[in-house]
């Protein structure tokens, strides 16, 4: 018997997943997440940090400022909101 591999993961498109820190939760069902990454300088090869802020959908309004969260790429929900909250990794103290 041959095993069938009919997984939705293989046919679905891969979506970006990022981890960042919540910097604002003032809007209703929306959080602003700051994502930090290290980039090498093209000529000098010294690493430096670059920060990107994205708006993410938080359906239950459960995030607070300082939480470390995981967000996933999503269809456009508003003019600037294209990410959705997956999980809260670490709560702020």
Any overview of this molecule?
The protein is 4% helix and 49% strand. A hairpin with a 5-residue loop joins β1 and β2. It has one domain: OB fold (Dihydrolipoamide Acetyltransferase, E2P) (Beta Barrel), CATH 2.40.50.140. The protein has a five-stranded mixed beta barrel with strand order 1-2-3-5-4. About 5% of the residues have low confidence. It starts with 7 loop residues before the first helix and ends with a strand. It has one helix and five strands; from the N terminus they run αβββββ. By secondary structure, it is mainly beta.
Total discrete domains: 1
Shape: globular
Give the end-to-end Cα distance, rounded to a whole number of Å.
54 Å
Order of helices and strands: HEEEEE
* Portion in strands: over 45%
Main β-sheet, spatial strand arrangement: 1-2-3-5-4
Low-pLDDT sequence parts: 4-8
- Total number of beta strands: 5
Count of DSSP-assigned helices = 1
CATH fold naming? OB fold (Dihydrolipoamide Acetyltransferase, E2P)
How would a textbook summarize the main sheet?
5 strands, mixed, barrel
CATH architecture: Beta Barrel
Name the CATH class: Mainly Beta
CATH level 4 superfamily: Nucleic acid-binding proteins
Mean pLDDT: 91
């Amino acid at each position: 018997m041959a095993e069938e591999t009919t997984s939705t993961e293989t046919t679905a498109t891969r979506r970006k997943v990022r981890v960042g820190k919540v910097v604002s939760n003032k809007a209703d069902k929306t959080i602003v997440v700051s994502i930090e990454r290290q980039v090498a300088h093209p000529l000098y090869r010294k690493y430096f940090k670059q920060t990107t802020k994205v708006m993410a959908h938080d359906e239950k309004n459960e995030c607070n400022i300082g939480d470390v969260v995981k967000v996933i790429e999503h269809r456009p929900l508003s003019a600037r909101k294209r990410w959705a909250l997956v999980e809260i990794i670490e709560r702020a103290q």
